[in-house]
Amino acid sequence: MKKKASKSVSKISSVYDHLKIEKKWQADWKKSGIYKTKEGGKKPKAYVLDMFPYPSGSGLHVGHPKGYIATDVFARFKRMSGFNVLHPMGWDAFGLPAEEFALKNKIHPSIAVKTNVKCYKDQLSILGFCYDWDREVNTTDPEYYKWTQWAFLQMHKKGLTYESHEPINWCPSCKTGLANEDLDNGKCERCGSIVEKKPIRQWVIGITKYADRLLSDLDALDWPNSIKESQKNWIGRSEGSELTFEIKGGESVSVFTTRPDTIFGVTYLVLAPEHHLIEKIKPRIENWDKVQSFIKDVAKKTQIERTAEGKEKTGVHLSGISAVNPANGEKVPVWIADYVLADYGTGAVMAVPAHDERDFVFAKKYNLPIMAVIGSEHVSDEKAYTGGGTLINSGKFNGKDSESVIKEITKFCNGKLVVRYKLRDWVFSRQRYWGEPIPLVHCASCGVVPVPEKELPLKLPNVKFYEPTGTGESPLAAIDKWVNTKCPQCKGPAKRETNTMPQWAGSCWYYLRYMDPKNKKMLVDPKKEKYWSPVDVYVGGTEHATRHLIYARFWHKFLYDIGVVSQSEPFTQLRNQGLIMGPDGQKMSKRFGNVVNPDDIVKLYGADSLRVYEMFMGPFEQAISWSTDNMLGSRRFIERVWRLKQKISKDSVKKDTEQLLHKTIKKVGQDIQGFSHNTAISSMMILLNALESEASVDKKTYETLLLILAPFTPHITDDLWSQLGHKKSIHLEVWPTYDESKLISDSFKIMIQVNGKIRGSLETNNPEEAFVIKAAKEKPEIKKYLDGNEIIKEIYVKNKLVNFVVKG
RNA sequence: GCUCGGGUGGUGGAAUGGUAGACACGGAGGACUUAAAAUCCUCUGACCUUUAAAAGUCGUGUGGGUUCGAGUCCCACCCCGAGCACCA
Questions:
Q1: What's the pLDDT at A567?
Q2: Of all protein residues, which has its CA closest to the C1' atom of B18?
Q3: How many domains in chain A?
Q4: Which of A364, A483, A513, A515 has its CA 20 to 30 A from that of A328?
């Protein structure tokens, strides 16, 4: 490895000493504080934000800074363009990874976090980012999590939280309950263990109350389509009807269906094996032994086993139980089956085997009747017809169109139109140590009582033993001194809530804290909030599509509802950086041994080279493999800019060069704003190539090149800037303006086509159609295609192209 | 299965319906050098004809279509990636 590095280093020239220069300017910026953000003044604001990192023990690899570089370029560009820029950084440090790291290395998490944060900060600092470190936040800081707890209490007050004993996702290896969002295909997103359903006392936040707004407000956001789609899928809105079937004997069961139009085709009813009705009607179930053992079998299976693809549906008939179809009063049998999920819809479905694939398969297997009610032409014994059409066998609705009849049939059956979501309420408690304590107290006489706000932060006790218990109790439960407290209401003995908050809690609102990081009285000063909100550009990875980005939007909307924030959405524009893969094309990971460390790259080639390369390597949102060879091109580009300085002279600038310069200023500015950094850099390379081919370059032109390059290569441009005699940092300069009139060329190259094929070109300063067409026809290379043929059509695209359409 | 992206040289990639392959990497040749590195210059999609110059044909996953003109728009299909999924 070392040998390879020393071989590579010889590939670069020693035209400038990146180590010395970068160190000097980083120290200089720190001393002068040029990146400190102040409120006030008349400048418009720009809030440019990175998803703050989780400081893990393994440090950064070369892929992590890609997004940070892009926002840094953006922030620097905005600052030069006259904006008051907020560009902060902080640490998301509560949660399982930090705790696991601590347990493994036998260091207390609070210490491990400190070490890791320092390591991350060191790694970031050598890349020359323009963060205002005075605004640094850390979610594990009691002064920070005080407000995480405060927000939870506000939700509690508004009745948005509830205590539940329902079975939830339990990771046997992490020994904690998990939210649906923490699952990846039925496995724990963190450790990959198969998650079990386990009844555990837990705190849940009613995020589903916000489902509609989370969905509809997506439309106005400037976010990547894929993220919006992911969120839409996750929220999973579906419109349908809730219909009630009477059960013979007194009870009733309601079902959710998106196809009430098929109700006359119901031939049986299916309940989820966990359905609460079963307990009630148990005495009347004639084959209870069989039913009970089926329920037990299903309960034993994991979610994965139950929903495995191609898995055969199984069920059992509840003998002696029947339900009444509200549409026609007919009796239908009632079954329980594993293909009906307890936690979607009402946990019960009306089965229409003729028009639903699952019901069809099930009906075939158990020999249940199949009754077609849509479009006689579609009736088949092979498979279900799931489309729409004309109703048949549907009483007074016969002949009507299935889609248009939905409302009418629902009303006819005394049902109601409802909207259902896949989104579940947010399981908010974790049975682990390293998280924000949930600020509630359990009192035998008063019930659940919130910790008074003035007692916040409710600090996480500093203890030696914090291993997860696995019993469903948090390790905090074992700390008697902490658990036993007084009821804030009646002052009697009471016990603290011992669960902690999930990893995602602290990251739900950190962008607000950056606006006002030191405020002790409130979460954020309303004036500051109003000034900085919303975040203008937010950059991070796609892995947060249905986790952080849903939670944060929800949290923000809640804060909006209680008047803490002024906007209903936190992040106006979102951009996702594509991964940087290892040189072998695989995801960078210790496991594959393909990790490239930014520290090594910076040492050998400089931070400026790394920055240029990561922005130049391809479209920002795309995953691309790292190539040190390709990176050398970026280093060479910087060296050539450095060397070009020797060519500065007093000669006046050539007209072509001036035009290219203005074109480049325009393009670079536009591309930075559009996150097309790769083409911004290539256009500067084109400019550099042109300048190099001249005998000399005038100072003003060279300075302009430095200015537009400054956001990408902050160190070398500041150095060259000062070499040119400037006292003030280049980063405090104003972004150069381009002159639209300079962009207009006075001569044009016009392509000449015959029948759409390029046959020649024409250089002219007269764009008149008649002139150009005449001139084009006279060109010998064109003439030979026209002679003897009839010209049917002449097309002229001004300043660009002529096309002769000929016959013959 | 549904939804959303994407498929362009040896490689990363560029192209408001109007010169496909900008820019860069890699490669080949040359200059400089005692030599190497670095640097600079020239060439570099495929095929084909010709001594050569030059020209021609093909070419953006496949097959159709719209258009004077398609990498770009429309239809069908194939492949790759992401999200959701026994969701009623």
A1: 96
A2: A801
A3: 3
A4: A364
